[in-house]
Amino acid sequence: MKTNISTITTLVLLLPAAVAGSPAQQPSEQEFLVTAYYSPEPGQCCYVRGGYEADKILNGEGHTAADGTAVYAGIAAAPSSYPFGTRIMLPGIGTVAVHDRGGAIVEREDGIHRLDIWMGAGEEGLARALAFGAQRVRGTVYPVGIAQPATSLSLASLPAPAEELSRFGIYRDDLMAVSPAREDRGYSVQRMQEALQEVGLFSHAVTAYFGDVTEQSLGTFIQTMGIDEPSDQLTTRTAAYLTAAVQRADAVFPVDGYVDAGSSRSRIAAAQRLLRFMGVYRGRTNGTYDDQLRDAVFRFQKAYSVVTSWQDAGAGRIGPQTKRVLEREWNRRLVAQKAEQLLAEHRVGQLLADRGAVPDRYLSNGDSGTQVRLLQSLLAERGYFVLEEADGYFGPRTEQAVLRYQQARGIVERTDEVGAGMVGPRTLATLQLEQRTKAYRLVRAEGWEVF
Fold first, then answer.
1. Region 370-450: CATH code
2. What are phi and psi of 318, to 5 degrees?
3. What is the SS3 assignment for 313?
4. Tell me, what's the pLDDT at 273?
5. What phi and psi values does residue 218 have, to the nearest 5 degrees?
6. How far apart are CA 430 and CA 419, in angstroms?
7. Do 171-247 and 265-329 have matching folds?
8. What pLDDT score does 144 carry?
9. What's the whole-number mean pLDDT along residues 350-376?
10. pLDDT at 11
């Protein structure tokens, strides 16, 4: 299932003992260097290598193990000297069963054997794998063919703090790039809860867990925005509206009080502009409370069931209830406009990704291939690299070009900073954003036919 396993999390060391599957076929002790892996899923906030495909290369597809067993809590990858079905009891962790292999899962020359344990899927699995860290464990090996303990590993008992993902979060602030659903735990859920807090619809503690409270809050937001989306998951459309609403959270309503014949000319003019935007007023912005403005207010009130006739109290005037409804509809309309723009930009980003026009993984010195060549061409477009020297190899010239780009964009200042000269989360996100913005402007000018 997995190839070239390198550390997602760190590893663990133990003391030498008997080798698994010895001729006596008795339980034996063995020192292990224990690591953890997970199953990447599309729509995560964070990836160890910068993208879904890159993490699949690191961790494998994440569905079945090398012997065809579907992944489950307690499955492990061990060196090839451990037959499939071997069970290993690890104090403080649990009992795992060997069903998987990995290029880096070997018996080391110092007598320590590597062991890799599956920690779940998606953001929660990644956070748990990262938090697992390096652990020294002396395990007991139970070969196939003798009495074995039952497999027992409780993922729920192992910590999976969302903050573990923050340093890998290329999409950490982009709600439209993630897709948390009911029962999920992770940084994407945390960001969604924080966004709902910012728009005043989530008053509970941020837990990074998508349960009843979060679904109710998301459902209220969806209803308020008048969009037809499910409440048990954050769809791309809902995410666009939520992002737009957060951006408008501090917007000031343009009419600073109630409006009637006795209001100031400036307040009346503000009401005229607002009602023109709402599509019910076609008169001049003259600050005069005349019949045309009064009729426009009444049409709005009837449309939103504030009043039913001219005989109703407040008909034709902007009082408390009318002002509340006006502010709600004004904000909803502006949020919708911004959301549609965000959706168009997101679509542009997806098209670029589908065409391989933007890098989709982290890159550093020693890497090679089409992703590096693409990086070199993008740096050349920006004047930091010589296009004729693009060879698909990340060497000193590419490192210096990346560094100059980072310094120009304010990503790093000094050459000794962490990530300097490497394409990490911030650099990759900046490159992708620049390409998306450039393409979106082209779409606005010439239409979707440019793709």
1. 1.10.101
2. -95, 95
3. coil
4. 97
5. -65, -40
6. 14
7. yes
8. 95
9. 94
10. 31
